[in-house]
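Appendix B, Record 12. Input sequence as logged:
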Amino acid sequence: MVKPSFAEDLQRYGPHAQPERPPTLRQSRRYCRRLARQHYENFTVVSRLFPRALRQHICNIYAYCRWADDLADEVADPRQSLALLAWWEKHLRMCYQGQAIHPVFIALGDTIRKFNIPDDPFVDLLVAFRQDQQVHRYETHGQLLEYCRYSANPVGRLMLYLCQCHTPERTRLSDWICTGLQLANFCQDVAVDWQRGRVYFPQVECRRFGYDESMFAGRVYNEAFRRLMAVQVEQAEALLRRGLPLVNMLPSDMRLPVAVFVFGGLKILDLIKQHNYDVWNARPQLSTTDKLRILATCWWQLRRGTLLVGTEP
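Logged structural output:
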């Protein structure tokens, strides 16, 4: 069943909508801000931590991702999802041709022009959303990383364009962070993903530890699952720490929000370990206290220049 808010948006702005005229840029920006306010992860998507000049552009990019994600996950029929994703890519192409009519692309077009963003990251995200309709298991860790290349890494690259510091070295570090955050999310959302028919743990590792499909179906929490989860958590943590030097290579006003996101991911992984890897019975989430502690510690360590010295929030 499509969630009510998205059903309304799909009826109003979807492929069968017949608006009298395209919305204005101001209306489109307001619509993107509304989408960003409606959806929350471990941290508010558009936080006051980000520079004021970038907040609207972050909302515009988020709205693009939100729509694509909902077209992939909120439609029951994979064939219909693929058709809708093709429609979404058509509008992306129209945006780059200066012919946007959808509010998301009218607002996003302004961002693309201002920061000279190529279409590659936006197209890559659609590769991942299409893949979710067709691939539900990954045999190896390498195949899972290749999926993350499309599902997660483009978001970090888009942020680098907004920061106007898109370089090969920063891109490599950003990719490690984004993949680490994606793997952390897979660890956090095992139950949610299973309900959607997906397993984002390498099948070769599931077999290695003796955790089979019947155990996933029964939500079995046992030693095999704990050992399987421990490896996934370790891999995610290693990538996040590997990418952490990016923080000090960013413009000063972007260091705090990026540090907070990285250490938020590390804290989720730490909570999973504290609960002995039992994510079947309780989804680990950051409390308000956790978020405030991470924010305060990152701010203090950045101010002192000790963020990468060894002390962590």
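DSSP finds 15 helices and no strands in the chain.
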